[in-house]
Amino acid sequence: MKKYRGIFLKNDQEIAALERSNRIVAEILDRICSMVRPGITTMDLEEQAVVLCTEYGVQPAFKGYHGFPYALCCSVNEEIVHGFPSLRPLREGDLLSIDFGVVCDGFYGDSARTVGVGSIAEDAARLLEVTERSLYLGIAQAQPGNDLYDISRAVQEYVEGQGFHVIRRFVGHGIGRMLHEKPEVPNFVPRGASRLPLRPGMVLAIEPMVAVGTELVDILSDGWTAVTKDRSLAAHFEHSVAITEKGPIILSRLS
After folding, report:
1. Average pLDDT over residues 30-46
2. Taking the CA of residue 177 as centre, how many other CA atoms within 13 Å lie in the half-sphere pointing to its CB?
3. 34, exposed or middle or buried, with CB in 10 Å at 0-12, 13-18, 19+?
4. Closest to 9 measured CA to CA, from 216, 218, 181, 217
5. 105-116 as b/e, with b when 16 or more CB fall inside 10 Å?
6. Which of 1, 118, 142, 247 could form a cystine bridge with 92, CB 3.0-4.6 A?
7. How many CB atoms lie within 10 A of CB 160?
Protein backbone atom coordinates (compact mmCIF):
# COMPACT_ATOMS: atom_id res chain seq x y z
CA MET A 1 0.00 0.00 0.00
CA LYS A 2 1.51 3.31 -1.08
CA LYS A 3 1.78 6.28 1.25
CA TYR A 4 1.45 9.99 0.55
CA ARG A 5 2.12 12.42 3.40
CA GLY A 6 1.32 9.67 5.88
CA ILE A 7 -1.92 8.75 4.07
CA PHE A 8 -2.46 5.21 2.76
CA LEU A 9 -3.30 5.26 -0.96
CA LYS A 10 -5.43 2.29 -1.99
CA ASN A 11 -5.10 0.37 -5.25
CA ASP A 12 -8.06 -0.88 -7.31
CA GLN A 13 -8.26 -4.19 -5.42
CA GLU A 14 -8.25 -2.45 -2.05
CA ILE A 15 -10.93 -0.01 -3.17
CA ALA A 16 -13.02 -2.96 -4.37
CA ALA A 17 -12.63 -4.57 -0.92
CA LEU A 18 -13.67 -1.32 0.74
CA GLU A 19 -16.66 -1.11 -1.58
CA ARG A 20 -17.76 -4.60 -0.45
CA SER A 21 -17.54 -3.69 3.24
CA ASN A 22 -19.32 -0.39 2.70
CA ARG A 23 -22.05 -2.01 0.63
CA ILE A 24 -22.77 -4.31 3.56
CA VAL A 25 -22.92 -1.27 5.84
CA ALA A 26 -25.42 0.37 3.48
CA GLU A 27 -27.59 -2.75 3.25
CA ILE A 28 -27.68 -3.20 7.03
CA LEU A 29 -28.38 0.50 7.58
CA ASP A 30 -31.28 0.26 5.13
CA ARG A 31 -32.75 -2.60 7.14
CA ILE A 32 -32.18 -0.89 10.49
CA CYS A 33 -33.63 2.42 9.32
CA SER A 34 -36.72 0.64 7.98
CA MET A 35 -37.43 -0.49 11.56
CA VAL A 36 -37.50 3.05 12.99
CA ARG A 37 -40.97 4.00 14.21
CA PRO A 38 -42.59 5.35 17.38
CA GLY A 39 -42.42 2.84 20.23
CA ILE A 40 -39.37 0.89 19.12
CA THR A 41 -36.23 1.18 21.26
CA THR A 42 -32.72 1.80 20.01
CA MET A 43 -31.72 -1.38 21.84
CA ASP A 44 -34.09 -3.23 19.50
CA LEU A 45 -32.11 -1.73 16.61
CA GLU A 46 -28.81 -2.68 18.26
CA GLU A 47 -29.89 -6.29 18.67
CA GLN A 48 -30.96 -6.48 15.04
CA ALA A 49 -27.67 -4.96 13.88
CA VAL A 50 -25.74 -7.69 15.72
CA VAL A 51 -27.94 -10.37 14.14
CA LEU A 52 -27.38 -8.88 10.68
CA CYS A 53 -23.61 -8.76 11.16
CA THR A 54 -23.72 -12.49 11.83
CA GLU A 55 -25.96 -13.01 8.80
CA TYR A 56 -23.49 -11.15 6.55
CA GLY A 57 -20.43 -12.78 8.12
CA VAL A 58 -18.86 -9.49 9.23
CA GLN A 59 -17.73 -7.98 12.52
CA PRO A 60 -19.30 -4.79 13.94
CA ALA A 61 -16.57 -2.17 13.67
CA PHE A 62 -17.48 -0.07 16.69
CA LYS A 63 -18.11 -2.73 19.33
CA GLY A 64 -15.04 -2.79 21.58
CA TYR A 65 -13.34 0.03 19.68
CA HIS A 66 -11.55 2.03 22.40
CA GLY A 67 -14.03 0.41 24.76
CA PHE A 68 -17.26 1.45 22.98
CA PRO A 69 -19.75 -1.24 24.06
CA TYR A 70 -22.19 -1.43 21.12
CA ALA A 71 -22.42 -2.15 17.39
CA LEU A 72 -24.49 0.98 16.72
CA CYS A 73 -24.15 4.58 17.74
CA CYS A 74 -27.75 5.72 18.29
CA SER A 75 -28.05 9.44 19.01
CA VAL A 76 -31.47 10.99 19.65
CA ASN A 77 -32.45 14.65 19.19
CA GLU A 78 -29.77 16.79 20.91
CA GLU A 79 -27.35 13.86 20.90
CA ILE A 80 -24.84 14.42 18.11
CA VAL A 81 -22.82 11.22 17.95
CA HIS A 82 -21.63 8.20 20.00
CA GLY A 83 -24.99 7.75 21.73
CA PHE A 84 -25.62 4.43 23.46
CA PRO A 85 -28.56 2.23 22.41
CA SER A 86 -31.11 2.16 25.24
CA LEU A 87 -34.50 0.82 26.31
CA ARG A 88 -36.13 4.24 25.96
CA PRO A 89 -38.90 4.02 23.33
CA LEU A 90 -38.59 6.42 20.42
CA ARG A 91 -41.35 9.00 20.19
CA GLU A 92 -43.18 10.60 17.29
CA GLY A 93 -41.15 13.60 16.13
CA ASP A 94 -37.76 12.41 17.41
CA LEU A 95 -34.63 12.55 15.27
CA LEU A 96 -32.40 9.48 15.37
CA SER A 97 -28.82 9.49 14.09
CA ILE A 98 -27.44 6.00 13.41
CA ASP A 99 -23.71 5.57 12.86
CA PHE A 100 -22.58 2.06 11.89
CA GLY A 101 -19.52 0.26 10.60
CA VAL A 102 -18.30 -3.25 9.84
CA VAL A 103 -15.05 -5.10 9.21
CA CYS A 104 -15.17 -7.40 6.18
CA ASP A 105 -12.06 -9.35 5.13
CA GLY A 106 -9.85 -6.87 6.96
CA PHE A 107 -11.37 -3.70 5.48
CA TYR A 108 -13.68 -1.25 7.22
CA GLY A 109 -16.96 0.25 6.14
CA ASP A 110 -18.51 3.29 7.85
CA SER A 111 -21.64 5.35 7.23
CA ALA A 112 -24.25 7.35 9.15
CA ARG A 113 -27.78 8.63 8.60
CA THR A 114 -30.29 10.68 10.55
CA VAL A 115 -33.95 9.74 10.21
CA GLY A 116 -37.17 11.15 11.57
CA VAL A 117 -39.39 9.06 13.80
CA GLY A 118 -42.86 9.23 12.33
CA SER A 119 -43.92 12.78 11.46
CA ILE A 120 -41.31 15.41 12.36
CA ALA A 121 -41.47 19.19 12.71
CA GLU A 122 -40.66 21.44 9.77
CA ASP A 123 -37.51 22.82 11.39
CA ALA A 124 -36.26 19.30 12.09
CA ALA A 125 -36.91 18.27 8.49
CA ARG A 126 -34.97 21.30 7.28
CA LEU A 127 -32.04 20.37 9.54
CA LEU A 128 -31.94 16.90 7.96
CA GLU A 129 -32.16 18.34 4.46
CA VAL A 130 -29.34 20.86 5.03
CA THR A 131 -27.05 18.34 6.71
CA GLU A 132 -27.47 15.70 4.02
CA ARG A 133 -27.09 18.31 1.27
CA SER A 134 -23.86 19.55 2.86
CA LEU A 135 -22.47 16.00 2.73
CA TYR A 136 -23.03 15.77 -1.01
CA LEU A 137 -21.59 19.24 -1.60
CA GLY A 138 -18.48 18.11 0.27
CA ILE A 139 -18.27 14.88 -1.71
CA ALA A 140 -18.48 16.85 -4.98
CA GLN A 141 -15.21 18.55 -4.01
CA ALA A 142 -13.39 15.21 -3.50
CA GLN A 143 -11.64 15.52 -6.86
CA PRO A 144 -7.98 14.77 -7.64
CA GLY A 145 -6.02 18.02 -7.51
CA ASN A 146 -8.52 19.76 -5.24
CA ASP A 147 -7.46 20.52 -1.69
CA LEU A 148 -8.75 18.54 1.30
CA TYR A 149 -10.14 21.77 2.72
CA ASP A 150 -12.22 22.35 -0.41
CA ILE A 151 -14.40 19.59 1.05
CA SER A 152 -14.43 21.35 4.43
CA ARG A 153 -15.21 24.73 2.89
CA ALA A 154 -18.13 23.41 0.85
CA VAL A 155 -19.74 21.90 3.95
CA GLN A 156 -19.12 24.89 6.21
CA GLU A 157 -20.22 27.59 3.79
CA TYR A 158 -23.46 25.82 2.92
CA VAL A 159 -24.39 24.92 6.51
CA GLU A 160 -23.62 28.34 7.93
CA GLY A 161 -25.29 30.02 4.96
CA GLN A 162 -28.48 28.17 5.91
CA GLY A 163 -28.28 29.45 9.49
CA PHE A 164 -27.07 26.23 11.14
CA HIS A 165 -23.87 25.36 12.99
CA VAL A 166 -21.11 22.90 12.06
CA ILE A 167 -19.93 20.77 14.97
CA ARG A 168 -16.14 21.22 15.20
CA ARG A 169 -15.34 18.78 17.99
CA PHE A 170 -15.66 15.78 15.66
CA VAL A 171 -14.31 15.31 12.13
CA GLY A 172 -14.23 12.82 9.29
CA HIS A 173 -11.25 10.62 8.56
CA GLY A 174 -9.43 8.32 6.22
CA ILE A 175 -10.58 4.71 6.25
CA GLY A 176 -9.14 1.40 5.06
CA ARG A 177 -7.58 -1.45 7.01
CA MET A 178 -8.13 0.77 10.06
CA LEU A 179 -11.33 2.53 11.02
CA HIS A 180 -9.60 5.86 11.52
CA GLU A 181 -6.68 6.66 9.25
CA LYS A 182 -5.08 9.91 8.15
CA PRO A 183 -6.13 12.49 7.14
CA GLU A 184 -8.69 14.12 9.40
CA VAL A 185 -11.52 15.63 7.34
CA PRO A 186 -12.99 18.60 9.23
CA ASN A 187 -16.33 20.11 8.28
CA PHE A 188 -14.84 23.59 8.62
CA VAL A 189 -11.61 25.20 7.41
CA PRO A 190 -9.16 25.32 10.32
CA ARG A 191 -7.26 28.55 10.83
CA GLY A 192 -3.78 28.41 9.38
CA ALA A 193 -4.43 25.08 7.67
CA SER A 194 -1.80 24.14 5.09
CA ARG A 195 -2.79 22.71 1.71
CA LEU A 196 -3.26 18.98 1.27
CA PRO A 197 -3.89 18.18 -2.40
CA LEU A 198 -6.19 15.20 -2.92
CA ARG A 199 -4.86 12.19 -4.81
CA PRO A 200 -6.43 9.11 -6.40
CA GLY A 201 -6.38 6.22 -3.95
CA MET A 202 -7.44 8.25 -0.94
CA VAL A 203 -10.56 6.89 0.77
CA LEU A 204 -12.28 9.33 3.10
CA ALA A 205 -15.20 9.07 5.52
CA ILE A 206 -16.86 12.47 5.11
CA GLU A 207 -19.36 13.15 7.88
CA PRO A 208 -20.98 16.52 8.55
CA MET A 209 -22.51 16.93 12.00
CA VAL A 210 -24.80 19.94 12.21
CA ALA A 211 -26.79 21.59 15.01
CA VAL A 212 -29.58 24.11 15.16
CA GLY A 213 -28.32 26.31 17.96
CA THR A 214 -24.59 26.00 18.66
CA GLU A 215 -21.36 24.29 17.66
CA LEU A 216 -20.49 23.74 21.33
CA VAL A 217 -20.59 20.22 22.76
CA ASP A 218 -20.99 18.49 26.13
CA ILE A 219 -20.01 14.87 26.80
CA LEU A 220 -22.43 12.99 29.07
CA SER A 221 -21.46 10.98 32.13
CA ASP A 222 -21.14 7.74 30.11
CA GLY A 223 -17.96 9.25 28.67
CA TRP A 224 -19.16 8.83 25.08
CA THR A 225 -22.46 10.51 24.22
CA ALA A 226 -21.90 13.97 22.72
CA VAL A 227 -24.78 16.45 22.98
CA THR A 228 -25.24 20.05 21.89
CA LYS A 229 -24.43 22.38 24.76
CA ASP A 230 -27.76 24.20 24.39
CA ARG A 231 -29.58 20.87 23.82
CA SER A 232 -30.77 21.94 20.39
CA LEU A 233 -31.36 19.34 17.67
CA ALA A 234 -28.45 17.81 15.77
CA ALA A 235 -28.05 15.67 12.65
CA HIS A 236 -25.27 13.49 11.21
CA PHE A 237 -24.76 12.06 7.72
CA GLU A 238 -21.70 10.14 6.53
CA HIS A 239 -20.42 8.33 3.46
CA SER A 240 -17.13 6.58 2.78
CA VAL A 241 -15.79 7.95 -0.52
CA ALA A 242 -12.95 6.80 -2.80
CA ILE A 243 -11.09 9.46 -4.78
CA THR A 244 -10.31 8.21 -8.29
CA GLU A 245 -8.95 9.67 -11.53
CA LYS A 246 -12.56 10.03 -12.66
CA GLY A 247 -13.72 11.71 -9.45
CA PRO A 248 -15.33 10.57 -6.19
CA ILE A 249 -17.05 7.20 -5.84
CA ILE A 250 -19.47 6.83 -2.92
CA LEU A 251 -18.73 3.38 -1.53
CA SER A 252 -21.46 3.33 1.12
CA ARG A 253 -24.43 3.94 -1.18
CA LEU A 254 -26.44 1.21 -2.85
CA SER A 255 -27.41 3.18 -5.96
Report:
1. 98
2. 9
3. exposed
4. 181
5. eebbbbbbbbbb
6. 118
7. 15
Quote the CA–CA distance of 102 and 53 in Å, as a whole number: 8
Strand partners, 248: 243
Rg from Cα positions in the chain: 17
* 67-91 confidence digits (pLDDT tens): 999 999 999 999 999 999 999 999 9
Average pLDDT, the chain: 97
Give the model confidence (pLDDT) of 145-196 as tens digits: 999 999 999 999 999 999 999 999 999 999 999 999 999 999 999 998 889 9
Give me the architecture of the 2-250 domain, per CATH.
Alpha-Beta Complex (3.90)
Average pLDDT over residues 234-240: 98
Cα separations in angstroms, 116 against 2, 32, 79, 190: 41, 13, 14, 31
Report the alpha-carbon distance of residue 167 to residue 132 in Å, rounded.
14
Residue 55 phi, psi dihedral angles, 5° rounding: -60, -40
Alpha helices (H) along 141-253: 148-161
Which of 199, 204, 203, 176 lies closest to 245, judged by CA? 199
Give the model's pLDDT for residue 1.
Answer: 66
CA atoms within 13 A on the CB side of 221: 0
Q: Is the pTM of this model over 0.85?
A: yes
State the pLDDT at residue 3.
Answer: 87
Cis ω for the linkage preceding 183 (within 30 of 0): yes
Residue 255 has pLDDT above 90, yes or no: no
- What are the phi and psi torsion angles at 136 (to 5°)? -70, -30
Q: Is 253 left (phi over 0), alpha (psi -120 to 50) or beta?
A: beta
DSSP-derived secondary structure letter, 67: G
